[in-house]
């Protein structure tokens, strides 16, 4: 097994061959893009209102960092943002063995709706090959309608099954999917716009993880592996199908391959902004071009080679912060350190709007100024420096608003800009949709590539301009009075309400528990001091003369709204009478913002409700002239009884299966339920510490020699909880003795793994492809846990003479036992499956669920102690488990 550095270098070299050959690369950058023409200036005959700049909120729609979408996850605990990321296997939607055109979108619909619950759009990719699967999606995504119709090849390195991508039936199925997806989602929104739940679509479908490569089975035939990539003709067919079928959804592809030269498709950097070691110990960028110390196959170098470096002007650029560096990505903002490249340069030159960053989404602090600055720099950053309108209106009002973009990319979707009037009570009483299109507001400055030869780096060029939008709105029918003129960009997710989600077909409907997490829609906020948290920007005061004659005074808002009673199917309300200059004639009762009753008195019973459901109510008063009061204060009421599944699961029986000085392992009997158990909740004392889906759990990070008590409850899809299990009390073990000999790493936090990239010898260490820690594995309780599913590599440089030491000692345990057959270990020129090493006396290592010191005699196993180089472990042997390493030493 090659080292990770060699593996990645070979991957990159093969990709350079494929991209260069596929596009007919000419090494000809497009150069500085022409500036957009200047539009009309503001109407200076109107009063000018100016506004101060202030940082926009960190959580913005369609930009920032995206965590993975896991069903049932609590996204309110993630870093603020408006996106999630998910993979989908093609055979999860193309399921009919007899018909590739029969597509069941249920799994995708559920994901879109679950993201919408949290006011997030989805960025996603469909695939045919995913080494080991994602954990929630299968590894083999080939649809059953292709069974027996094409050749299947094995990528022995990754253990995947690869279809013949050039087979006509395969191409036909993929084009069928592309067209069906576009027909369903590309024009599903208002006015034929994109489905409001979708953010960005990575083209996917081809290659490992849908990343359009099949390394090492690719076009670089010098390594002896056959080529499993499709031909350029097939690639052009697929790229062309996407480009033809889609008009609205922003599309992204990993590389500027054949067919992307003029396509309306953006790009996606899966190694952003990572610096990679290759042969000879050179460390160069995988994002920035060669002119900025990048490799020849770096993301931006390939765009410069194909003249596509300005694609961002109309098509989005996304990516994934390379998992190895996600935790420390912004630690040295605006620069970088170690394998983190110059983050500011990478942001400004890629014009990246969003990125997958699972570690950051769960670990970054919104109060960290470096993180905040880096996140705000992504994508658009819209500011309103001024507006033009007069302070009075009679019948109509002309409004001009100037918008500029201080970010690195435009806003890519035609969301509606609204104007409104807000009264003194804070209620927006009138709104108008404008024809304004924010997509034309380009960044004021762009950073030049050194390859453009326009000046020393960093060189910034004028590009976008402030855009002066203008419209005239009718104020007819608006009561005379004083208002604030306000502006808002409407998030189309506003149409995806909780009621809409509850009305979904059973096959794609979310559980009530998930729908109950529904959050208000995330507004697009401007970088303005006058930006409100509700999404409205206060532009200034306006008085309307109105057209009212006679009684023009609205009643007072009803006071003391209260819930006077509830049943399984009804809510009873009462309130104090409103007052009016002439007289109140009645009231309007609103449930969840929708009018449901018009009583004349001060009580109302809302019938026909659902048991066990929460509703929100407000009341307005009305007089004979039709004047309507402001709303009362809102009250919430929950009907009695239970809706749907009301039966709790049975209580589990709890026991302990093991313990260490820092952890306790638990297991319990499976609970039963009338519908089905969906998971369990583990409590340490009275504190919830875990929510596993299965019947085992390990509580980590505990204190040695300390007593803990545990209970477990079962949970079903409706949110019913069982009674608590029996209580189990466990005392953790005493702390272990510190390791002796030469310590390679004891994972005590100094140096920190993986953020420091150093072991206890001060040399490089890291991992890739593990299921936790952004691919590196995670350190908890002073031990390194490597969770793998037929994929994983760990390395730790030694680089010192070990002649005075006899044994390599690995203190290790496994989650299930028997993991010695799942990986190899290499050191000093000797590489063996871990279970094949020979111990003193002729035995071989056997990993159990408890820690043990496995002492491998180095000389007897052919390990060169004079030149040990790097200790490396590779997990490509079909296994799926977790090993935990307490320390690695030489004795």
From TrEMBL:
Residues 1-27 form the signal peptide. It holds the Pfam family DUF4832. InterPro entries: DUF4832 (IPR032267), FN3_dom (IPR003961), FN3_sf (IPR036116), Ig-like_fold (IPR013783), RTP_Phos/Ushers (IPR050713), TAT_signal (IPR006311). SMART domains: FN3. GO terms for biological process: polysaccharide catabolic process. The keyword Hydrolase applies. The keyword Signal applies. Residues 26-46 are annotated as: Disordered. It comes from the Bacteria. Residues 557-642, 648-735 form the Fibronectin type-III domain. CDD domains: FN3. One of its GO terms (cellular component) is membrane. One of its GO terms (molecular function) is hydrolase activity, acting on glycosyl bonds. Keywords: Carbohydrate metabolism, Glycosidase, Hydrolase, Polysaccharide degradation, Signal. Residues 30-40 have a biased composition (Pro residues). This is Fibronectin type-III domain-containing protein. The lineage of its organism: Bacteria, Bacillati, Actinomycetota, Actinomycetes, Micromonosporales.
